[in-house]
Amino acid sequence: MTTKYDLNPDRLLPPDPVERDIARDLYAAVKDLPIISPHGHVPVEWFHDKDYHFSDPTSLFITPDHYVTRVMHSQGVALKDLGVNQKDFTPEQARNAFLIWGKNWGAYAGTPMRYWFEDSLQNVFDIHEKFGPDTAGHIYDELKDLLKQPEFTTRELVKKFNIGFISTTDDTLDDLHLHDETNADPDFPARLAPAFRPDVYLEPLTAGWAEMVGKLGDVAGVDTSTYDGFTEALRRRRLYFKEHGAVLSDHSHADVRTDRLSDAEVNKLYAEALAGTISADDATRLRRHFFSDQVRMAQEDGLVMTVHPHVHRSYDPSNLAEYGKDTGGDVPAKAEFTVDLKPLLNKYGNNPDFHFVAFTMDETVYARELAPLAGFYPSLYIGAPWWFIDAPEPILRYYAEVVPNAGFTKLSGFIDDTRALCSIPARHDTNRRLTARYVAGLVADHRLTLEEGRQIVVDSVVAQPTKVFKL
Amino acid sequence: MTTKYDLNPDRLLPPDPVERDIARDLYAAVKDLPIISPHGHVPVEWFHDKDYHFSDPTSLFITPDHYVTRVMHSQGVALKDLGVNQKDFTPEQARNAFLIWGKNWGAYAGTPMRYWFEDSLQNVFDIHEKFGPDTAGHIYDELKDLLKQPEFTTRELVKKFNIGFISTTDDTLDDLHLHDETNADPDFPARLAPAFRPDVYLEPLTAGWAEMVGKLGDVAGVDTSTYDGFTEALRRRRLYFKEHGAVLSDHSHADVRTDRLSDAEVNKLYAEALAGTISADDATRLRRHFFSDQVRMAQEDGLVMTVHPHVHRSYDPSNLAEYGKDTGGDVPAKAEFTVDLKPLLNKYGNNPDFHFVAFTMDETVYARELAPLAGFYPSLYIGAPWWFIDAPEPILRYYAEVVPNAGFTKLSGFIDDTRALCSIPARHDTNRRLTARYVAGLVADHRLTLEEGRQIVVDSVVAQPTKVFKL
Amino acid sequence: MTTKYDLNPDRLLPPDPVERDIARDLYAAVKDLPIISPHGHVPVEWFHDKDYHFSDPTSLFITPDHYVTRVMHSQGVALKDLGVNQKDFTPEQARNAFLIWGKNWGAYAGTPMRYWFEDSLQNVFDIHEKFGPDTAGHIYDELKDLLKQPEFTTRELVKKFNIGFISTTDDTLDDLHLHDETNADPDFPARLAPAFRPDVYLEPLTAGWAEMVGKLGDVAGVDTSTYDGFTEALRRRRLYFKEHGAVLSDHSHADVRTDRLSDAEVNKLYAEALAGTISADDATRLRRHFFSDQVRMAQEDGLVMTVHPHVHRSYDPSNLAEYGKDTGGDVPAKAEFTVDLKPLLNKYGNNPDFHFVAFTMDETVYARELAPLAGFYPSLYIGAPWWFIDAPEPILRYYAEVVPNAGFTKLSGFIDDTRALCSIPARHDTNRRLTARYVAGLVADHRLTLEEGRQIVVDSVVAQPTKVFKL
């Protein structure tokens, strides 16, 4: 017999009674509002399929979630035992991975992954047993049974989660018919958008780049053997995405520089890139030029730009070789925005129709760089804490670092950035609780009235992302 | 009919009842102490004129205050609509600017600008209507009437604000007769000091530098066609300022390096600078040499040095072209003190009569650089949070970052750094409340007795700035 | 007559009653657990001598403790008046140094040095008079008397402090017989370990390096005139230390790079280093190569590696000349781990038997670098806040910065790093209180149950250091 474990309704609200009462009031105003998710990584197929069921709890909660797997890796668990990059992962192995998770549950204490999973377990699956080494097997079996039930298809979950808008992240050449069909289906409960993510096309050293660029030309109906054709092809793909519902283009490079090359130089380097003879330094210079083209195009087509630069991708080469990209081996790099964004902001930052949302994983730039810049330039918005810093402590630090200079109107609103579908409501709820907590502090400080505080938390959930992402 | 809106007497004190009670006690000990303002930008004319009235609320609260205008700029408001750099700004336009401010009031939620203005409105003008889109017009009219009243001359305000000492920031060639006359006037209620700010003379690429240096020579009575003459002229101007009440020289360059040049080199570069042929790199090297001369002179004349380096001045060139300097287009740069100050500290840092106060806008240096250095060198003091970081959250972070290593005796005390006269009491009061809040935390932690805490907050307002700035 | 001054039993616990009650519970679970001190600087002689008495309070509390002396130096006190590097320091001078300390006690408000001394005074010496300018003389006399009593020998203190394990830091050539004899003595109450600290041997520009390397060869029984011999000698010394109880090697260089040189190059540079002709750049390259050898050896002999890089050693040359090293003139430098550790982590970071503990004094790397890296690599552990940041505020920041990504299982546990014996229990107690405080926050947030919180604080004091340092 297990003890019933219930999440406390006041979780993440401030413990001090004065602030907690205010925070409860503020949180009550937003807890049931629909979810707006302008950037994420849930595969479109999960939404398109009218009857999509997850095969088992491990492939839902562990294998695809590098947040979860990297903690176990740090405890000495091999990723292959968690199913990462395994073609033949048996049901026994899947169940065993869940047991390993339970055994390592202590390593998650204090992390958001633990918090999100406990929340999902109770609020999505109504399982009130405490997860841990002794219960992991039992919970696995219970979850596995539930996942077969009709109320646990992706679509039913989207309904249950009250998702109003959700964006996927898609291949530049995708014809987006799955998005179109899903949106055309009156039964699909949310607005579904694709996102334009041209990173690999802007990085000439990507393996197979010339071939990819050739296909880009085929799909766009332009000869991409020249730089002009390449640019035109990308311009058309942006428009194609926009016509099919995209609101933003998403970018992640080593920096955000937009240095332009001369016509002669860009043509020369483009030819070298196609020929595979371009140097690493020139590839970087070409990428910065390409990125500046994206910024220019955004002035014309109006797609919002989101950037999340400064990452050491695949930091561990043995991990990359064995398991591939995006398996937890990325690590934050030092960020720099003020110097690198200067040409971009000087040229386009005063255009209020251009929206540029900067995310970071290096908190030192919030107060020193992003808040002062966003507190001056109409175009610049500060992205919510992201990826390595989407936990309660850094979220509270974020507000305390950006609000004094940039206020609330230059913030992006929450972004879940996840492929872990069942964690989406927990993540948004976490952010709503913490926004309520920070704003409750301002009310308790008598810097805002309760009414003003209420307006701010409500706006942060609906009006603000609607404005920033032009929904 | 409008609802009466009253600031809470506990505002900015800790919400937790235990800490709040302590903080109330500490704050009570300092709330009515006179204001010491060792650095600011109020024009001396406002003090000199026995009957100076502000023409209208916009020219008092909006146009000259880049803190206020940059937030509206970030909302897409053109600075010209706020009167910035406008020669013919009509009364209608001035009133309209105030309405724009009201309309954008939501963008100020959580910022200190909002807090200061609400405080000024109630405590300076006794207006208890809540400012916002609906009341901006009415409040404008009320303020405009009040500004004509005899109790709202600058001098009456200085009395009302209980300002004991206030420093302006002045042109190096100023004859300071306005300061002398004001101080000689028994009716002027405070001690008024000029401040020596030679930045433009130390930066050889300043437009019109050679001409300025010529005038410097004329005023100082020295031939400045040689480096030696230039140095002597600056030495004399420092003494002139000191004789006329200055307590400090103020400096803001891209860095705080003091690398010396050889005699031959400095003479050569000085000649090039006068001829307008100096390179940017050599101008930087010359400026560092000039700055080291200022440091040397401070050993002799005893003027305190305040530095606030590491700013991207006029980051936005279109803003500079249309509106000029100091209109909100400055942005913080990364700071570095430990490496750059080494020669200065090695040579002069152990001289307890030399006071060097380092301000920053990059909070990352407080714990890592300034606190360890000031916790060793008698000469070095850590400036209060300044400019982009003079808000409640960063002020509390500042204390928590510097006190563990440097204690309270190596801090500068509060600096308002403003030309917004009516915000001065609100700014000092903000700092007193937050100092009480931080110290109340130490008392609540049982790290200090209540009596010790009381002594610390009182000292931080009076004894500490009196000592640091040699008042 | 003096008033009795008693430390509050709740000191450093959260003032909010909700959190305080939880924190009291957690703290109660750890307050009486034995002290594990895996790194420190107490001289082994103090432990070896069965009847070691401190000669006077100044030589116990002031002279050898650069934490204490640097604050007085920042107030303009000369270190020689505190006994630093003084051969003939008379009893009168020693007493006077204590009076100077009392006079400057206000400068310590808010610092951990003040907190530790007040704690030691009450809990080690049962003196309940408040230290300060008026009582310093009286307290000095009382302490001096007590130090002669039989219950204040070092060994009695070790017993009283309930120290279970303590490590010294020792010369690489030390034969460690004092450690052996102390451990063999059934009367010695703790386990005493030496630590291998080869820094000076890895820095070829150390004064007298060639001679030192020659002696290293003599002691190790290897000809160190070649690089291979040098490496073998260090390998043997590591083993010697391990055989005599060492659990770790300790390293502090300007960076943590491990770039390898070619065989030809390393032999050439080694010869130049011995000849004293090596350039500064080459000495750095050689040191990085040497350091990589230490890392390799750790794979074989299993010694834990602790690193605390990024310090400007002896920042003030006049202080170095007059008083020598380690007298408070060190200053933190900017830290960088992610780029510099990449080769090391890529090669060895996935070996769970290799333990690499990274300490820093630059808090900006906790959230951005160390937590993400330790949250992936099994080998990497995050050292506790250290040296300039071992105060309440930074300790709480540390937890809030590292736990969200790395949890609690990748933290080193507390390290006192001190030669100030009497401050050891106060330092460990400080950390236990603050760990309880941080974890109480997680419990109050309903992110952990009380029971889970209790387990975490207990583990952090015993199980965690036992695991990390392989005790």
UniProtKB/TrEMBL annotation, chains A, B, C:
One of its GO terms (molecular function) is glucuronate isomerase activity. It catalyses: D-glucuronate = D-fructuronate. InterPro entries: Metal_Hydrolase, Uronate_isomerase. Gene3D superfamilies: Metal-dependent hydrolases, uronate isomerase, domain 2, chain A. Pathway: Carbohydrate metabolism; pentose and glucuronate interconversion. Its EC number is 5.3.1.12. SUPFAM superfamilies: Metallo-dependent hydrolases (SSF51556). Keywords: Isomerase. One of its GO terms (biological process) is D-glucuronate catabolic process. Pfam families: UxaC (PF02614). Belongs to the metallo-dependent hydrolases superfamily. Uronate isomerase family. This is Uronate isomerase. It comes from Bifidobacterium avesanii.
